[in-house]
Write a structure and sequence with these properties.
Layout lengths: L11 E3 L4 E3 L6 E6 L7 E6 L11 H18 L4 E9 L5 E9 L7 E6 L9 H13 L11 E5 L4 E5 L7 H5 L4 H21 L4 H11 L7 H21 L5 H16 L3 E4 L8 E4 L2 E4 L6 E4 H5 L19 H13 L9 H23 L19 H18 L3 H18 L14
Antiparallel strand pairs: 1-2, 3-4, 5-6, 6-7, 7-9, 8-9, 10-13, 11-12
Amino acid sequence: MDLVGCSIDKRWFDPARGHYRHGARTGSVRTVATGVGSEGMSVEITADPADVADADDSDLLATLAAAESVLSGRFGAAVRLADPVRLGGAGRSVVARVRVAATPFALPRTLVVKRYPSAVADRDPFAHEAVSHQLLTALPGEDRLTPELVAQDSGERLVVLEDLGLAPRLAEKLLGSDARVAERGLLSWAHAMGRLHATTAGRDADFDALMRRQGSQCCADPIAVDVHTALAGLSGLLRDVLGVETPTAVREFAERAVRGFTTSRRRAFSPSTSCPDNHLVTSRGVRFLDFEGGCVRDIAFDAACLRVPFPSCWCAYGLPAGMSEAMVAAWRAEVASVWPDLDDDDVFLPRLLESQLLWVWLGTWRGLPGLDSGLPSTHRPVDSPPRATILTARWVRLRADAAALGVAPVAAHADAVVSALVARYGPEVAELPLYPAFR
């Protein structure tokens, strides 16, 4: 999902079709009072009867109508929206920026609307998104690191959010050409993650109560099921695909890691998945987007994302030496006031390694079966490294960190996996290029 701005050329918006068009405008022109900002009046194009919505934009128009209905019900008077601009979406969800064309209230000039399809199986991303925003919007403004929730409706499966505007994404910083800007973006992400954890510490009961009110039975971290599945099946997968056996000592280490993941008392809100496309770099620091898996869970699992950058997606490049360590230090500085024991390396580093191993196992479980097919990824730049290279780099880092901490069985097992990947895909698989900003 992408809640950030799109480039718009000098086309004109046709409200009947729900998208921008080229050529001469048709239809009559009328003005309406917006009551928003300093503009006072806006010009709206009324389409001719012959102009009907394109079939492929019917979902966008339906989302616009649903958002108008939800906002009008929320505020008790008619609210009219216009000029929807599609911002993407995950799966079949619709995400759009809309202009507030008419309202008797002091609403922002633009809003972001996200509407979900019906729930599938036992996971309901809408419930996680809506509840996450409810929880986070209740925080004081100075502590909020996410868009404010303006309205939500379970029947329409829709949330209306504050529009954070055209701030660049962290991905743009990393794929750019300025190393200092990219470094500041990564450190801002780490600080923001730590502040998010510190300000939502111990909110399990609140989150679960909101989920029950939402009518959802899926209160747990959606990744937790996958972690248990990876624990049960990865040993066999590594043996069948790479010919690598998993020693008993390594399986026991992974089992302890999963127990710590599920029983930890160091818990706070997590976006659950992390991708540089879903972090806006604003003048006030990084702001988080996309909570389709939002939950309350062990904070060390999120901290490990700083060692395995963006482990839930396949858009990763390498980072300069010492960058991950600097990000982990920035995160620890933010959470130390709530969990002072994490200042102790003897407490923190073993738990960080366990969480790192879980991410690597989970990524391998998900990615290894498709390495040979070269399956595309929704968030991968065209020239991003092959998945085999990204996966190998994660095992290389696990090998180094396990060796540094003296966990020899894990280091040796990681070395065996790296050797098998290199033997299968060639020596170039061990060379993960840096993000373009750091080259």
